[in-house]
Amino acid sequence: MFFHPMDFLIIIAFGLAMWAQSLVQRNFRKGSKIGSSSGMTGVEVARKILDSEGLSDVRIELSRRGALSDHYDPTAKVVRLSEPVYRGKSIASLAVAAHEVGHAIQHANHYSMLVFRHKLFPVANISSQLAPFLLIAGFIFSIPSLIGIGIVFFAAAVVFQLVTLPVEYNASSRARNKLITLGMITNQEEKGVGKVLNAAALTYVASTLIALLELVKYIMIFRERNS
């Protein structure tokens, strides 16, 4: 019932997302085998960068969610690092730790896109949960107004994903700069760090592309039904 020519593009985007996810895991595994010249662990790198920014109030904790569950919690002001990153001394561990600290620096500096993202989160969270039900109900019962509301809600969730892109890329940029300026990686090691960070960013690009294509699809169907 919901098949549309746009579905071909969405399938391609899903393929890109799966490839990007495998690329993250592959690059992290490769980077995990390359020890950093500094010999520092992820937690040591995170602490040094935070201290260099005067962020002694930001804590670092070991995440219990498993590998690649690293994140920054702005509410608690805590950088949580997974076991391989927390204790790891590889360039992959340093890259991920520095990236999460990049978010803490954004938070402290009131980085505009991060502030905007935080304000959007409550709306996007509710919208992403309600949109599928509104769209399905609208299509099944042929209620254009319900479809329209569903599209608006879905669009809010897409905007959130779009705003996430510059936030993630900016955090990676801050991470690379800090690792180099503080002497925690060499210029030669920067290439490996960049591969890990770029692969992670690509997953956000792929998921955003999927959401955008789905939004366009729903808009096209809505217009076709009301033409």
UniProtKB/TrEMBL annotation:
Pfam families documented for this protein: Zn_peptidase_2
Chain ranges passing through the membrane: 6-24, 133-160, 196-216
Keyword Transmembrane helix among UniProt keywords: yes
GO MF, one example: peptidase activity
GO terms for biological process, alphabetical: proteolysis
Keyword Transmembrane helix found: yes
Keywords, in A-Z order: Hydrolase, Membrane, Protease, Transmembrane, Transmembrane helix
Name of the protein: Membrane protease YugP
GN (gene name): yugP
